[in-house]
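Session log. Operator J.P. requested a structure for one protein chain; no other inputs attached. Running the standard single-chain path with token output.
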Amino acid sequence: MVPHLVSRWPVWLFRCRAAYTPGAPVQQKTWAWMSSAAPWGIVGTSPLVCRHSSSTSSRAPEVMLTHKRYPVRRLPFSVVSEEDLAAFERMVPGRVVTDPEELEASNVDWLRTVRGCSKVLLRPRTSEEVSRILRYCHERNLAVNPQGGNTGMVGGSVPVFDEIILSTALMNQVISFHDVSGEAGLPVASGQWGTWAPEGKDRWLQLQAQLHLCLALWGPHVSLHCPEPRAPRWLGCSAGILVCQAGCVLEELSRHVEQRDFIMPLDLGAKGSCHIGGNLATNAGGLRFLRYGSLHGTVLGMEVVLANGTILSGLTSLRKDNTGYDLKQLFIGSEGTLGVITAVSILCPPKPKAVNVAFLGCPGFAEVLQTFSSCKGMLGEILSAYEFMDAECMQLVGHHLQLASPVQESPFYVLIETSGSRAEHDAEKLSDFLEQVLGSGLVTDGTLATDQRKIKALWALRERITEALSLDGYVYKYDVSLPVERLYDLVTELRARLSPRAKHVVGYGHLGDGNLHLNVTAEAFSASLLGDLEPYVYEWTAGQQGSVSAEHGVGFKKKDILGYSKPPEALQLMQQLKALLDPKGILNPYKTLPSQA
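Structure written below.
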């Protein structure tokens, strides 16, 4: 039997290999626990270095304009005039950017695959300023591109043509944080953050009535799968409520709440750059989804500015509010096409007192699945993440970032995180689990970390895959949901289909959520290679009853493939909701909805 590891963990990391004769009973197997004193081959910058910078180098090739690479036509919006610039300067003095060099980074997505040609960027600090800007743009028929940290994967955060960029970068204030228990509501600060502005409440009620009319008109013809947001398991415990502006960087918020013994309910590889408002607008999933659920369940309230400048002030902190339609859900995942999110009230779970990360090698994807099954059964409530990556991912991370594997070379790798309140309890569960998977041959090699710094080093092997891919050439990225048993079949089939025309075809992602990140790299963009990928990837996914976008959103790149995941009736209803909330279509045009539904 494996000894209890609590008293046997004097160092931060262990390597574990099973040494036994095949077929021998578990009790007769011997185990070698080998310590390591330092991270393996990690050189250069910290694993948490900001990976999603949009800055460009003079040596970097210029990104082709989106409207030249893709078949898209400019809609009949007005063009920004000198009079408009003067009006904006009065609204946000000193925060109107027109310098082409300053605009360059905001016109290009961080993947450097799409580029707009906006001539002006605005930096409001308050919801009132956003309201004045949108009211003016609505009257003038000027298109607006809301932008947060610009870390999106599908071209949703940058202009397609010359839309005005509305940046939330200066809306970065934490308004309040409270440790609460039970169902009591939290009063928020007075002023612009009042729980209800009278005109805002009236607008919420008006929207509820209009939405009800839309649904009544469609009646039985609409069949939508809209499950009620699942309450995370931790909501029965004490929780914190964070109220902040939309431009707060996720990593900064994480530090803020961790100082108070709480954590944010989501964690992303782009946390050093992404904004919480952008997270909500794209309904970001990320690395904690398995444990804490989606933003549909953790967001309590939000403040949104509509296209005509109306401020919807719904920053409630009530855990229960069953008064009519839950309108905030419309804006989560709407990608700035229905309104601009300016503030949010969100639940934060307690900070775990014991966190462990295991990094394991598996001989095949079947073993990855079986390990996950054992993981769920044996780790239960302390399981907080189950990530997988294939051998090519590890090779790219090693080649481009000089991060060496901490375990022997394997066809697949899994990263397992546990989060609990008692170290001894978690250690015992992990001990039993590792004995099971190593002893049965599901895992061939493994390493374990308990120290926070070394835990981050292990996470870097998974989180920095995107960075390594971006250094490998042009990247075709796909983010799909599939039945877990078929999750990797798409990668295998694409490798055979593309053969030598692609540099690498890799698969990794959140296996616990059935979320595959499929990436294909090439020396440069190729229309021919794109034709071999699309619509094949989407047709294959639809054939498995999967989703063509699991967590990255729709943006510009996926707007015309929604039909693979949504019926025509649903698409038409979405168009009606867009027309209801943004009748002139000025908010983030060319994104999220199909050109023709």
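Operator note: The first helix runs from residue 66 to 69.
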